[in-house]
Amino acid sequence: MTLTFAPDTTPRKAAAAADAAMVASQGEGPSERQQEVLDAVLKLMVAEGDGFSVAAVARAASCSKETLYKWFGDRDGLLTATVRWQASKVRMPKLPQDRLTRQSLEAALTGFAASWLTVITGDLSIALNRAAVSHAGSGKSRLGEIVLTNGPFAMKRRIEPLLETGRAAGLLDFEDVTDAFRSFFGLVVADTQIRLLLGEDSHPDQVEINMISAQAVTKFLRLYGRG
């Protein structure tokens, strides 16, 4: 959800705490009640940035602090789960049941791009990224590391199977899937997110998002498409 890439070094401690707590409490993915808690965290971040306390989350979500610690481990675990919950709203591209064609590849890439843009240009994602950027390099918060790992790096892991399938089908030509993803990322996100982070009030509507996504995929296929 932020815009620069670094080596994919996962913040393992917070991620492991969040994973262990979430798996122990409900298996895969947050329960409906946990989703309510994570949505409360996102709303607090829109209103206050990331300076909220666990007690504030408990009050906002009508939940005890003990339950929050049981579910998410600690504050970093809660932040990790919140970022993952927001990132999960980006719909995964569905691989066709039959052989991948250029048309189905283009449709899958465009759908993923539109879903991604819809999420990262929303108020909740903008609030998350502003909070992450505000503490970057200060040592006061690990939110930037958490957002980077569960934002762009997570999107890379989601789209890689589709890119690799496109290459295996002879529709895409690239040597390094990371380079291909970086190009896709740059074409889809461009400067849209930066402008919003810097305070631009005009959020793209769904028509504009669909247009940006289609144009980005067309350019991507010109760069990497075969045939």
Automatic annotation (TrEMBL):
Entry annotated with the keyword Cytoplasm: no
The entry's DNA-binding region: 53-72
Name under which the protein is recorded: TetR family transcriptional regulator
Coiled-coil blocks: none
Superkingdom field: Bacteria
TM annotation in the entry: none
Taxonomic source organism: Hoeflea alexandrii
KW Plastid (keyword) present: no
Pfam families, alphabetized: TetR_C_7
InterPro entries (alphabetical): Homeodomain-like_sf (IPR009057), HTH-type_TetR-like_transc_reg (IPR050109), HTH_TetR (IPR001647), TetR_C_Proteobacteria (IPR039536)
Record domain HTH tetR-type: where: 31-90
Sorted UniProt keywords: DNA-binding
